Amino acid sequence: MLSSLVHLGPLALLRPAVNFANRMTAAPGQEWGPRTIPDSQLIYVISGQAALTLGNEQFQLQSQDCVFYGSDSPHRLVSSVSDPCTFASIHFSWHKESPEPIHPMPGIHHCLESELAQPATSYAFHMQGHGDIIFPHHFVIPNLDSLFLQIVREYRFEELGYASVLRAVLTQLIVVIVRHQLTGLNTSGPRSRIAPALEAIRKQPNARWTAEELAGLCGYHPTYFAALFREGTGHSPKHYLVLERIRKAKQLLLEAGTIDEVAEKMGYTSIHYFCRNFKSVTGMTPSEFKRQSIVL
């Protein structure tokens, strides 16, 4: 049985909202499930151990492990008997106009043991310059507990503007997870197969990379590589290199570099060509970008 995939649209347009947040230490052997929930949930293990059955997968969790699942994905979480877990939990909606929490309890339902064999639903969103990104079900990110606990505190104390703060911190948390996903530590599919090329471009955006050279780094024929690259990033290798050059150029311009210096550092032999690329990506010339940064 294949898992379903929910496309959430552009990440930049999402308006996530926290519905419930808690930090707790489980009793030895304490269980949640098998069940389904009406929203999505992130769990971060602070200490101890637990076991998660998510669809047809099983995860042995310990400190710094984080898991995610969405609505209608059968799951069961069991705290270790010998080393009970302490964890932070966030129930949230991916996109909701109001940031006000809506408690998920009425929509939590027990399910049959046999339903745990049903594959978990995956969620994907689009990121400019990176194509579609699938949010991971399991990952390890050190020191992520600070963001989880900030959300828990805001939810518990309900201070002035807390719902807006919850949305802001949850958005930050999601972006941190996505950035970690894009480093290649958790990637799968097309991006993992072109990782050597992406790393080469990131480290040397000033180099005059050809599609053939990048394909060679990954061990593919240039035609196949180009198709794989577009599938993984949403761009051709040439355009992706331009995007990476301009991203780095913006950083250098903010560091008070002159336009000529920045163009040269990014591998451009023509200042006109650099300015044309810069405007096509940012909508403004390098001079306008520098002036804007000073005004702001």
TrEMBL record:
Q: Which residues form the HTH araC/xylS-type domain?
A: 192-292
What superkingdom heads the lineage?
A: Bacteria
Please name the InterPro entries in this protein's record: Cupin_2, Homeodomain-like_sf, HTH-like, HTH_AraC, HTH_AraC-typ_CS, RmlC-like_jellyroll, Tscrpt_reg_AraC-type_HTH
Pfam families linked to this entry: Cupin_2, HTH_18
Q: Which SUPFAM superfamilies match?
A: Homeodomain-like, Regulatory protein AraC
> Keywords for this entry?
DNA-binding, Transcription, Transcription regulation
Annotated GO MF terms: DNA-binding transcription factor activity; sequence-specific DNA binding
| PANTHER family cross-referenced by the UniProt entry | ARAC-FAMILY TRANSCRIPTIONAL REGULATOR (PTHR43280), RCS-SPECIFIC HTH-TYPE TRANSCRIPTIONAL ACTIVATOR RCLR (PTHR43280:SF11)
Protein name, UniProt field: AraC family transcriptional regulator
Species:
Paenibacillus xerothermodurans
